[in-house]
Amino acid sequence: MGYPHPPHPKETVVLSKYFGDAEARTFDGWVKRGGYEALKKALGMTPDAIIEELKASGLRGRGGAGFPTGLKWSFMPKNDGKPHYLVCNADESEPGTFKDREIMRWTPHQLIEGCAIGAYAIGAETCYIYIRGEFTEPWKVMTAAVAEAYAKGALGGNVFGSGKRIDIVLHRGAGAYICGEETAMMNSIEGKRGNPRIKPPFPAQAGLFGMPTTINNVETLSSTSHILTRGAAWYKGLCLSNPKSTGTKLFSVCGHVMRPGNYELTMGFPMKDLIHDLAGGMRPGRRLKAVIPGGSSVPIMTAAEAEAALCDYEGIVEKGSMLGSAGFIVMDDSTDMVYEIWRLAKFYAHESCAQCTQCREGTAWTTKILERILRGQGKKEDLDLLLDLSDQMTGRTICVLSDSCAAPIVSGIKKFPEEFEAYLSRAKAPALAAV
Amino acid sequence: MSDLVNVTIDGVQISVPKGTPIIEAAKQAGVLVPHYCYHPSLPSPAVCRMCLVEVEKAPKLVPACVTTVADGNVIHVNNDKSKRARESVLEFLLINHPLDCPICDQAGECELQDYTFQEGRAGTRYGDYAKRYNPVEDFGPDVLYVANRCILCTRCVRFMDNVAGDAVLNVSERGDRAFIGIDPDHKLDHPWAGNVVDLCPVGSLISKDFLHKARAWDLDKTASVCTGCTQGCNTMIDTRDDVVVRLRPRPNLDVNRHFICDEGRSDYRWMNRGDRIEAPLVREGGKLTPTDWTQALDRLGAAVKAARRVVILASGRASTESLGFVRRMVDGASVTAAIKVPLGAEAPLAGVPNLALRKERVPNLAGASLAGYGTDWSAALAAAKGADLVVVLDADLDDADVAALSGAAAVAVIGTVDDDRLAGSALILPATNMAEENGTYVNRDHRVQRYFQAKPAPGMARPAWWIAAEATHAARGLAAPATAADAFAALGAMIPALAGLTYSDLGHTGRVVTPNAAGAAR
Asked: Has the ipTM of the complex gone over 0.90?
């Protein structure tokens, strides 16, 4: 972690090694810590060699989908005569996730280096870093770091004397959750309303400004420099469980734990240890009730499922949820699950871009039903209705915002039915005032 | 045929070109995929999710509007899974819909209403929640936005953005608060903006001109052609109780796609004029006297026969049939024939090639030219002085034009509107206007297009071609056609470009002919 607490002995500190170290924010400080060696090395390699190295490392997208990064880069057309773009997704707006924020805040050059490597590998001269609007401090840090990188020749028309041009454009979002969806992000950068686009065409064919584009998460790009300096074999070796999940990953833990924060762990680390040991466990006298492991957009895990799960892409799927962005929302037994699910649904209803019918109307409708249940005015058929609406909101729309709203609702009703029953039978006092 | 793919849609096997969207392939298989946001003349955003269909082996339902067919696809539009998805979309669309169909202009021609009746749920599960409410907004000269009825298909936004090239509309707000917004500094006043009313699948964008005028099911619809300019946009004349209440575009991908301009759209009131000539008038003892057609036609035939120098002052709105037969009526004399061509500003529709409101504001300039009419109006007026006979074919005359008539020995009027200034004429014969007859216009690209009778003619009015042909029969014994179809078929003898063509050759979208051609079209 590094900040605000020193790293836990069980952490594998790679990305977060210099969190809290103010000197690492500067170009010279970063170079002193071995920075920009990877970029220099990359510039001496062919793009194909870099992509092969990444494929061999097993690095997968850290934004949520877990798509193999090397494979994604290899989809970019070669020698097509068109400008290519790299977009770095720094619109970290998934509830419960705050890892990219810390990367940008403490190690901006780590990200800039990763972006430059990525841009070179996919044949792009321009990289857009789309930074979430609410991230004021990371924005300032990144702005200063990019200016310094230009001044020191790490960016610009002749990167480290290689003759290669790599520009980084910082683009600040305006606070819409949906702009974290990659195609919505491209629209937003183009100055359009941030609505997700239909795929196909996929970004590698026609992305930003209609040109071949790759979009990667902050953490993914930041990992590339370490892979290039220390080798794919080293990275692949960082694996405690399934060989398809390699490397280290920042896990944001928030909610009812004694020591919330980012923990950098080797893939496959037991979730039980993460919650009860590293994150300090529950408050005294409290028991773990539920965990939403991947930001808010994945199914809820019960305490039993969470404690049995291993923290990697496959391990969490095995226990009925998804790794997502690895933002762990931990809830103890004081939590009212119905209330929490309502709060999440309300978030999605607020953030729906309004394109697809199911999402626009469905997120708002499910929120209203949950609100009514919380007011003690629920009807017994409401649960079936919620499940039916969630079914129609899943797999029907352009992007997965609607699915993301449905996931906690469906899993919540299935895993915590008694809490809904308590409201429906009026056994529990209303949590919201009746209107 | 490698550019064709074979697909099965609801059990119907068809071959369609590669790259065809499923929704268009389904049309060819005779299956309509219900849809809202899709429109063949607009880019598809795939947002309404109404056209989701099952394609076997695909992991989930796919939007038929943006998914192209692949060889061997087996597509189910009307199986339980696809229908269930549509039922659900309809339910979602209706939870915030006011269901004010009884006072909505769109009722009866509303796609939300139609599909809900076809396959929606009978009742609501929305319960007693309040519906979204937004006030009605005045978008522009002829468009009101009733936000509560809006299903956010964004056809209007895309039309203004991608077709008109005047992006004044957008989707404002997010989630279920979203509505169609307009640039606060602009109005929806593009010359083609009225098309958003037709594009709107529900009653959200409505025409002020048509507001509460008629219920859709009371309208009779007649295929027609716009009389506004030489473009020849295909239209539909909607009449209620024999009164024209609305013009709408009729699709013709080669002429106007799915659009007409606002000027053409609003140009129908003259069709309903009540100050009409209703009986043939002939001069008896210095006074115009009503008579029957037999006597009137004999008089016209005699006047034509006696005349050596004849001038025809015609309207560019006259059908090709009328122009042709009136011209033939005076064969043998020395003839000066012209139509009056009012001019205006050109207003193109940016997104559609070769589509504009044209400068020349008459529909049949090319037809008149084929029939031997010039456009030199002042020369024709000059020729009227000292002419033996001036035939006025429904021309819109100003006072100077009327004054020029006084130099002619005799004036015969074949007209629609009663005009006191022409009381000195030898004959005034009642003709039908274009909404009251079958006929053809030839547009600027020499596309010959039919229009159909939309309402009955007043009194004894007859088509001008009939009047001219019967008078010619009276004067010279030439056979007169009995129907517009016969008249058109006979035009080939006068206009070589039309030789061999019949109404059935023209169909509903017309046919391009080659001017000066000796033989048949094409």
From this structure: yes
